[in-house]
């Protein structure tokens, strides 16, 4: 279902060019022939999880091969995101001195929106502009290409334009892969790492994970709009080099529970919106309709006025939460990042990188002992369980079900919040007591008091 929706949407946008460009990487692009040598580890996918795993494995002396179906790292991942500075700094100390981040995020806002109104909350602090910082906005393609450079400098081999079609097993033990480039090639390894992203077809084909349902997968679409840096700073009230992220709630997702946001970059901003694939099918609209809906909003129109669209993109994000995580360790094989549904709200990239790091630690331990069994590789899941990753995912385990139980929540309560703010601001020729009664009746006509209390109680039970 997700692939169909993406194909339909891209065909509607085929007149626009994606602006992501490759950079030169020190990689091996030779064809290995029919049978390649045996590696310590083969990693499938050059995303943040796979490349982080490759870097730390290579740094610890493992002979590592990364196979990526795109022509360069990040080729399938245009647009930008934010990364958590402390999470990334602990893996790559002072990374901001080496990697070109777009903006330091010093400002976080949330907008509760209706078709003509915005009720906003905003936090801005100079403390967030000081090292070691809090968050950065980054271009995904640049980040992945930087990680690919780090991995190759550490000694990993990275091959592009290789599509892995099959994981090879011998008596239940993963032993290698079959990949297609100009021809079909077999690559052998003691450890296989699946880092092929959301909706991992290899995990599904190998019987290692169940087919992802449309309810547990969201389709996010984004548009990047170029604007001069000075214009961005003026419109968002930012100092040079500083950035903001705005969470958009309610109106942008057209009555469905989902998320939307605005991110600021050096000389562009991005509009992002996503809802469950099942909801797109139910609503019967093109994903691009949500972007157009956002762009027509009065407050958004002011922010993007005069800008030029330079990118469209889309991606599938697993939203099933803790209970949708498959078994991550098998004989000779580990699953990392989005392929393992290790996604928690806005922490997708950082969780992916840390899962790759823990997989690398397990691989290193396995090589030392020459034991590639499930028991030995389970160090990976043990490290995950002890980390913030699994603890946070477990704490938020009920969120996915809550969103399904309260499909109206974001839209309805945004409209109620907006109506409250409007009525408080509105001046009437009536006594204040009469106004309060009028406002109360208006709000309870939108949602009865007992239902509000019930929804609040359900939410409090889930949020830990």
From TrEMBL:
Among SUPFAM superfamilies, the record links this protein to: FAD-linked reductases, C-terminal domain, FAD/NAD(P)-binding domain
User: Which InterPro entries is this protein grouped with?
Assistant: FAD/NAD-bd_sf, FixC-like, FixC-like_C
Q: FixC-like C-terminal domain location, by residue? A: 402-464
Give yes or no: UniProt keyword Flavoprotein: yes
What UniProt keywords are attached to this protein's entry? FAD, Flavoprotein, Oxidoreductase
MF GO annotations:
oxidoreductase activity
Q: Which cofactor does it need?
A: FAD
The similarity annotation says: Belongs to the ETF-QO/FixC family.
| PANTHER family cross-referenced by the UniProt entry | ELECTRON TRANSFER FLAVOPROTEIN-QUINONE OXIDOREDUCTASE YDIS-RELATED
The name this protein goes by in its record: Electron transfer flavoprotein-quinone oxidoreductase
């Amino acid at each position: 279902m997700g692939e169909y929706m993406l194909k339909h949407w891209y065909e509607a946008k085929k007149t626009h060019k994606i602006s992501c460009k490759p950079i030169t990487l020190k990689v091996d692009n030779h064809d290995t022939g029919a049978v390649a040598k045996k590696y310590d580890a083969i990693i499938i996918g050059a995303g943040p999880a796979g490349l982080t795993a490759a870097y730390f494995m290579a740094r610890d002396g493992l002979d590592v091969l990364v196979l990526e179906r795109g022509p360069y790292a990040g080729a399938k991942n245009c647009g930008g995101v934010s990364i958590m500075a402390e999470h990334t700094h602990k893996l790559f100390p002072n990374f901001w001195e080496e990697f070109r981040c777009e903006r330091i995020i010093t400002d976080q806002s949330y907008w509760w929106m209706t078709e003509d109104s915005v009720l906003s909350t905003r936090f801005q602090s100079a403390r967030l502009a000081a090292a070691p910082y809090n968050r950065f906005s980054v271009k995904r393609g640049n980040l992945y290409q930087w990680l690919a450079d780090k991995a190759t400098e550490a000694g990993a081999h990275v091959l592009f334009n290789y599509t892995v079609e099959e994981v090879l097993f011998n008596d239940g033990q993963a032993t290698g892969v079959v990949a297609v480039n100009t021809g079909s090639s077999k690559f052998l390894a003691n450890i296989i790492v699946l880092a092929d992203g959301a909706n991992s077809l290899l995990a599904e084909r190998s019987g290692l994970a169940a087919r992802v349902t449309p309810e547990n997968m969201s389709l996010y679409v984004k548009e990047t709009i170029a604007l001069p840096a000075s214009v961005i700073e003026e419109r968002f009230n930012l100092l040079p080099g500083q950035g903001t992220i705005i969470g958009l709630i309610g109106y942008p997702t057209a009555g469905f529970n989902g998320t939307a946001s605005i991110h600021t970059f050096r000389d562009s901003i991005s509009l992002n919106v996503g809802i469950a694939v099942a909801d797109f099918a139910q609503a019967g609209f093109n994903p691009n309709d949500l972007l157009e809906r956002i762009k027509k909003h009065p407050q958004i129109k002011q922010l993007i006025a005069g800008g030029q669209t330079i990118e469209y993109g889309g991606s599938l994000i697993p939203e099933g939460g803790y209970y949708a995580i498959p078994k991550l360790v098998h004989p000779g094989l580990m699953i990392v990042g989005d392929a393992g549904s290790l996604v928690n709200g806005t922490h997708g990239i950082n969780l992916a990188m840390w899962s790759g790091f823990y997989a690398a630690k397990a691989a290193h331990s396995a090589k030392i002992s020459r034991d590639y069994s499930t028991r030995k590789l389970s160090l990976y899941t043990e490290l995950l369980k002890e980390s913030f990753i699994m603890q946070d995912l477990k704490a938020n385990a009920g969120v996915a079900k809550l969103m399904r139980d309260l499909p109206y929540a974001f839209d309805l309560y945004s409209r109620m919040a907006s109506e409250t703010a409007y009525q408080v601001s509105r001046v009437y020729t009536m006594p204040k007591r009469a106004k309060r009664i009028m406002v109360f009746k208006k709000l309870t006509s939108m949602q009865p008091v007992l239902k509000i209390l019930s929804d609040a109680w359900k939410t409090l039970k889930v949020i830990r």
